[in-house]
């Protein structure tokens, strides 16, 4: 058995933390690198013809006609390019990652990642109201998935690597390694386990290190140092901020879904052109809606935007983002959610300062709380939003009101408006379901390689006593019965041993000295009395969930584990039964 085969077998179980940590670190470097390249691409003179790299100005200083034409033409170009692709290659973004995790064991196709890189970059560069974090998560996850696929690792390990790529992407985009870890566990992996935590933490750290080497150690947002709650009398007002953030998030999710449903049958190029034209029209009067908009977010955090600008930017951004997201432009929603939250928080801070001047905190404090609230409510990721809030501000004083507002915002979305997260809504519209039972959640985190029995041998269904004796020499537990080089059934080895002993005893009674002809007499293993069962085949990379589902569909209770070698031959590695799967689940849930 080769070294890589031994590694694959080890990675199928829970006892491969050190190995997974090393591979997770490598994936973190690849994911961080892909995100840095994407950011450099979108900010380079090759595509970002709309800004002045010397003065860092954004779209506000441009002529109104330029603001109209840039997103319109950009949307048309992106749409025409997308129209040439097969529908399955147009799937990009976080919802694509979630779909591949739920239905394809984390195997992300490289073609979609290239589409995300090229067309996602053009979308951002043409000033559309989308973010770069969604494409970044796709690129990071695809980079890590590529490693798992190239090494032909067990699917449970590949799923963890996708989480590593996601964490590194968030860390590289925001310089928030802890938030990257929580986001990956909360949204992508959807569980908290030590086997996942350690490699994901290392990957997130790797992403943060790379982005600091290239872009410096500054955070994405210029957060003022005087963020602190002024009075406990503000807490009811933070409840109102949370409520407003939840309502805004619900409106965004519901309206985006309506736009998506109305435009379902439209040609792709028409969707993107309408989206770009809509952004251009809005940007004539409200240029802040174009692009990522982090300059406007920083201004809101510094308290530099007037109430009128905050309101206009908020209304314009939510309309523009609803149209862009609903019409399937290949960009993300995390950036726009942070933008909308900052504007909402700034509005609430200005109003609170006017109504309660003796108790109100700094306006930028409310903007920061609003960012975390809307992000957590739109994505249904309250813990990730809270960690991002803490890391971005580096200020523990913000946690107390932030927790309160974020929780209220999430409750409004889920309980009052009965909405799923933005990405779950996208998948539901396509007839896909992210929900998974706790049992299957455990089974998909363990590979068959870590549970299967390797104590087995193979025998042709017509074998001689000498052949059987040689096969049973190492006392295997199972016998795979072959016919024409194909596995036909599974036999308990002890039944075969018992039959051979009884046969020999009977022969001794009849003939004290068995002749050579009796030793060469063929025994039909399919006809002797024994506990035999039909079985299905399961790839060595499969998880226990895949093996269990395959047995259920075939109405069988056993499977043999195989892998196709480089020369096209089927190599058998072991046997797994339904009882082994059940015992493993019970073992992992011992009190």
Keywords:
591 residues, Clc chloride channel, CBS-domain, three-stranded mixed sheet, 9 strands
Question: In a few lines, what is going on in this structure?
Answer:
It contains 24 helices and 9 strands.
Q: CATH superfamily name of the largest domain?
A: Clc chloride channel
Strand content: 5-15%
- Shape assignment: elongated
What is the total tally of β strands?
Answer: 9
**Main sheet: strand order:** 1-3-4-6
CATH class (first level) name of the largest domain: Mainly Alpha
Work out the helicity level. 55-70%
Main beta-sheet annotation: 4 strands, mixed
Q: How many discrete domains?
A: 3
What is the arithmetic mean of pLDDT?
Answer: 89
Radius of gyration from the alpha-carbon trace, in angstroms:
29 Å
Give the name of the CATH architecture of the largest domain: Orthogonal Bundle
CATH topology label of the largest domain: Clc chloride channel
- Backbone structural class: alpha/beta
Main location: membrane
GO molecular function: chloride channel activity
Pfam families: CBS (PF00571), Voltage_CLC (PF00654)
GO cellular component, one term: chloride channel complex
Describe the structure.
- The protein folds into three domains: 3-215, Clc chloride channel (Orthogonal Bundle), CATH 1.10.3080; 232-437, Clc chloride channel (Orthogonal Bundle); 443-588, CBS-domain (Roll), CATH 3.10.580.
- Helix 2 packs across helix 7 (155-174), helix 10 packs across helix 17 and helix 13 packs antiparallel against helix 14 (334-355).
- The strands form three sheets. Strands 1-3-4-6 form a four-stranded mixed β-sheet.
- It has helices at residues 3-11, 17-43, 64-83, 94-103, 110-125, 133-150, 155-174, 177-189, 194-215, 235-262, 268-285, 294-301, 307-326, 334-355, 363-379, 382-393, 399-416, 422-429, 438-443, 465-471, 493-510, 516-520, 544-554, 578-588; strands at 456-460, 462-463, 478-483, 486-492, 523-524, 532-533, 536-539, 558-564, 570-577.
- The chain is built from 24 helices and nine strands.
- It is elongated.
- It has 591 residues and is of the alpha/beta class.
- 62% of the residues lie in helices and 7% in strands.
């Amino acid at each position: 058995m080769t070294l890589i085969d031994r590694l694959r077998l080890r990675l199928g179980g829970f006892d491969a933390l050190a190995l997974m940590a090393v591979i997770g670190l490598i994936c973190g470097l690849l994911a961080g690198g892909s995100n840095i390249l994407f950011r450099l691409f979108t900010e380079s003179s090759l595509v970002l013809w709309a800004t002045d790299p010397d003065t860092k100005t954004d779209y506000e200083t441009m002529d109104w006609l330029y603001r109209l034409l840039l997103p319109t033409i950009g949307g048309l170009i992106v749409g025409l390019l997308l129209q040439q692709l097969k529908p399955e290659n147009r799937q990009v973004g976080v919802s694509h990652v979630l779909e591949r995790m739920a239905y394809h064991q984390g195997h992300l196709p490289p073609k979609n990642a290239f589409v995300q890189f090229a067309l996602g970059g053009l979308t951002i560069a043409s000033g559309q109201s989308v973010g770069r974090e969604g494409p970044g998560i796709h690129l990071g996850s695809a980079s890590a998935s590529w490693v798992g696929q190239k090494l032909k690792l067990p699917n449970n390990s590949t799923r963890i690597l996708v989480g590593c790529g996601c964490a590194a992407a968030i860390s590289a985009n925001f310089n928030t390694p802890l938030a990257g870890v929580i986001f990956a566990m909360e949204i992508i992996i959807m569980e908290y386990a030590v086997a996942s935590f350690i490699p994901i933490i290392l990957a997130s750290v790797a992403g943060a290190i790379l982005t600091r080497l290239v872009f410096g150690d500054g955070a994405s947002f210029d957060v003022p140092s005087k963020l602190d709650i002024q009075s406990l009398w503000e807490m009811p007002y933070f409840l109102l901020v949370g409520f407003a953030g939840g309502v805004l998030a619900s409106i965004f999710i519901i309206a985006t879904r309506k736009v998506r449903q109305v435009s379902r049958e439209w040609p792709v190029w028409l969707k993107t052109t309408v989206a770009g034209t809509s952004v251009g029209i809005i940007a004539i009067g409200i240029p802040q809606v174009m692009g990522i908009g982090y300059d406007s977010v920083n201004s809101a955090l510094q308290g530099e935007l007037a109430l009128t600008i905050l309101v206009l930017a908020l209304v314009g951004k939510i309309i523009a983002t609803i149209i862009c997201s609903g019409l399937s432009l290949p960009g993300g929603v995390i950036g726009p959610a942070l933008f909308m939250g900052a504007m909402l928080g700034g509005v609430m801070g200005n109003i609170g300062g006017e109504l309660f001047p003796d108790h109100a905190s700094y306006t930028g404090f409310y903007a920061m709380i609003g960012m975390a609230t809307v992000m957590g409510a739109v994505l249904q990721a309250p813990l990730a939003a809270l960690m991002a809030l803490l890391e971005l501000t580096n200020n523990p004083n913000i946690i107390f009101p932030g927790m309160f507002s974020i929780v209220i915002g999430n409750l409004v979305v889920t309980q009052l408006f009965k909405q799923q997260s933005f990405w779950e809504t996208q998948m539901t519209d396509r007839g896909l379901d992210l929900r998974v039972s706790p049992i299957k959640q455990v089974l998909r985190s363990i590979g068959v390689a870590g549970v299967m029995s390797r104590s087995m041998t193979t025998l042709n269904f017509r074998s001689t006593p000498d052949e059987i004796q040689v096969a049973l020499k190492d006392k295997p537990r199972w016998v795979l019965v072959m016919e024409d080089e194909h596995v036909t059934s599974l036999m308990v080895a002890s039944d075969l041993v018992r039959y051979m002993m009884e046969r020999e005893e009977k022969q001794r009674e009849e003939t004290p000295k068995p002749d050579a002809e009796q030793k060469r007499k063929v025994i039909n293993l399919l006809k002797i009395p024994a506990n035999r069962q039909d079985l299905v085949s399961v790839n060595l990379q499969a998880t226990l969930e895949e093996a269990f589902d395959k047995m259920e569909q075939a109405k069988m209770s056993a499977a043999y584990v195989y892998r196709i070698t480089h020369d096209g031959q089927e190599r058998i590695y072991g046997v797994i039964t339904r009882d082994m799967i059940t015992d493993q689940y019970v073992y992992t849930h011992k009190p």
